[in-house]
Structure formats: C-alpha cells, structure tokens
Design a protein that fits this description.
The structure is a single chain. The protein is α/β, with parallel strands linked by helices. It has 2 domains: 96 residues, 3-Layer(aba) Sandwich (Rossmann fold); 90 residues, Rossmann fold. 35% of the residues lie in helices and 21% in strands. The chain contains 6 helices and 8 strands, in the order βαβαβαβαβαββαβ. Helix 1 runs parallel beside helix 6 and helix 3 runs parallel beside helix 4. The two termini are 32 Å apart. Bound molecules: glycinamide ribonucleotide. The site of glycinamide ribonucleotide has 16 residues, from helix 1, strand 5 and helix 6.
Length: 203
C-alpha cells in the first residue's frame, strides 16, 4: 500500500511515521513549512501543491483536483493527513473516499474545527486527546479508527495541552496506519472477532 502524508505544520507526526518504519511514498504540503523541510532532510519524495489564497475566494475543488492528480501520479493508495491545513473538497473524496485518514487533536465528536485544543480548555474538560478517523466530506467526521486520551492539568495552556496530545498522537497515528497497511483495508474487516478500535492512554 503506497502511503502519502499531507502536511502544513512542524511535521512531528511525519517524523513519527518515518521513525516507526512506515514507507512514506510521498509527502505533500499545501505551503512551505518545516514539515516539508523534514521530508527533504529524510530523503522522502515530496511535492508542494501550493494553496494560493486563504480567503473566501479559494478554489477548494480546483485545489483538491490538482492534489488528486499529484497523488495519482505517484500511485498513492492511502492518504494520511497529518496537520494538513486545507479542508479537501469533493474531488478528493470522490477519488480517495474511504482511503483518506486524519488525526484531530480532540476526542471527536467533541471539539471539531481548527481550535480544538483551545476549545477543550475553554470548556473546562478534565480529559482530552486525539482521534484518528476516516475523513468524511464534513470536517472532522467519519468512522473513528482510534482514540487516545490525556488528562487536562491545572495550569495548562493551549501549547502544553497540545504537546501532551501530540505525544500520544505520535504513537497512535503510526500504529493505526501500520494496522491499515497490515490488514490491507482502512476499516477493520467486518468480523465479530475483529479487534475493537485502538485506544491509548498516557501513563
Ligand atoms: C496534530 O496535533 C494534528 O492533530 C493537528 O495538527 C498537529 C500536527 O502536528 N491537526 C489538526 O489540527 C487538523 N485539524 P505536526 O505538524 O507537529 O505533525
């Protein structure tokens, strides 16, 4: 299974994939970012499919179609979004629906959206975490593959809580993708003896 990782940020999840020994066939970024530099440093194939604008005039479908072309050019089977800053349109879901996975820094269905960590803190929850899921057309929806929980501690700010979540994500996301590769399908096989979705808890 040829795996592409989509990035926009620091790329610590990308590093975790590589560290776990997952063969990353392609890294795609939507903007210049440290994650793209990490891909280059690791000797991975990478592509910058630049998002030209961030306002309401953004052509989401056109962008998604260009991205799909690049993924197909590299014979990609599975697409793992790892801090990717662009919501993909229907063209991407038509081409890769069911084979597009994402990680989100909250326990979905709670705290969807771009400010999940901040929103969880503001809500005063005592636990948060990450959710790895098959990406649906609606943002932060789709079948859940794995969740990892962490405590919210007194004195936490957005950065400290996010980093605690990312420690779990860096373990759980590669493990989840590895399980997909091993079984050759994104969703667990419909078998009553199949394992439950993976969970992880910070010690
Ligand atoms: C991760 O925490 C991921 O859940 C989050 O971006 C971070 C990427 O970290 N994704 C989102 O917020 C998507 N809505 P990284 O750049 O260090 O790999």
């Amino acid at each position: 299974m040829r795996v592409a990782v989509l990035v926009s940020g620091t790329g610590s999840l990308l590093d975790a994939f590589v560290g776990d020994g997952i063969a990353v066939a392609l890294v795609v970024a939507d903007r210049p970012c440290p994650a793209l530099d990490r891909a280059t440093a690791a000797g991975l194939n990478s592509a910058l499919v630049v998002r030209d604008r961030f306002d309401a005039g953004f052509d989401r479908e056109g962008y998604s179609a260009r991205l799909v072309e690049v993924l197909r050019d590299h014979d990609i089977d599975l697409v793992a979004m790892a801090g990717f800053g662009t919501i993909l349109g229907r063209a991407a879901h038509d081409a890769y629906g069911g084979r597009l996975v994402n990680t989100h820094p909250a326990l979905l269905p709670a705290f969807k959206g771009w400010h999940a960590v901040r929103d969880a803190l503001a809500a005063g929850v005592s636990r948060s975490g990450c959710t790895i899921h098959v990406a649906g057309l609606e943002v932060d929806t789709g079948p859940i593959l794995a969740q990892g929980e962490v405590p919210v501690l007194p004195g936490d700010d957005e950065a400290s809580l996010h980093e605690r979540i990312k420690v779990v994500e860096r373990r759980l996301y590669p493990a989840t993708v590895r399980a997909i590769i091993d079984r050759g399908s994104v969703l667990p096989v419909d078998d009553p003896t199949a394992p439950e979705p993976m969970t992880a808890q910070e010690a």
